[in-house]
Amino acid sequence: MPPVLEVDDIYVSYGRIPAIRGVSLTVDEGEIVSLVGPNGAGKSTTLMTVAGALVPTKGAVRLKGHPITGHAPENIARLGVSFVPEGRHVFTQLTVEENIRLGTDMRRDKDAIEADFERVLSYFPFLRERLSTPGGKLSGGEQQQLVIGRALMTAPKIILVDEPSLGLGPIIVDRVYEIFHRLREAGNTLLVVEQSTHRALQNADRIYVLRSGRIELSGSSRDLTDEQLEFAYFGFDSPVGQGGGPHP
Ligand SMILES: Nc1ncnc2c1ncn2[C@@H]1O[C@H](COP(=O)(O)OP(=O)(O)O)[C@@H](O)[C@H]1O
Ligand SMILES: [Mg+2]
User: Fold this and answer.
1) 3-state secondary structure of 72
2) How many angstroms separate the alpha carbon of residue 41 from the centre of ligand 2?
3) Out of 33, 76, 141, 155, which could bridge 52 as a Cys pair, Cβ 3.0 to 4.6 Å?
4) Which CATH architecture has domain 5-234?
């Protein structure tokens, strides 16, 4: 079976400035994969390219083996890629319920939608009491959970989440990751962008370290250490790394 997501040697530039140079990664069904790296490494660029908001100058993106490179974002979303961008994007004037149901705009299976709506509320019980509250009244942590709920309403094949922990306190971050684990147990597939190697190691099945637009290190969380990850992240030569050395 092909991986759910296959990013195959993609290059993306802003104007003439290259942002990522030859990024490859895969995400298998039922995995949490973490893409970790410092500010400016190209993490958001990678996710935006998968979601179709950016088009690579070279390379391919495949969803379950089918090329989606260069497809329009709405088509990619319809094919099952749900993108939760950095900064959460809750519509502050819309109610919580309206915000959640935005995820169903392109679905036709109305009965399944209601079942999924109940499922989202079972993941995030606090939302049930707040369904008619404007989205803008929720705290940052609640908004992060709301947008994950919205992503689930699209019945995605994969959920891409860009820096879910940004600006949230440690307890809320733990709560968000707890949800990711429950989602994975329910068969969902996630690619999560993260700045903390430590958190990636604690939560992901597999990790890719991105630095200066290239994958510096990758592997199973079981096989990687905090030290190896930090070497790759900060760009030192790793004495023990798998591919942690400098690129030519
Ligand atoms: N809209 C843009 N225009 C020009 N350069 C950009 C733009 N967005 C990002 N970049 C540059 O591309 C590189 C990768 O950025 P980004 O993907 O946002 O990194 P990350 O998400 O890892 O912090 C950085 O050098 C950044 O300055
Ligand atoms: Mg980013």
Assistant:
1) coil
2) 8
3) 76
4) 3-Layer(aba) Sandwich (3.40)
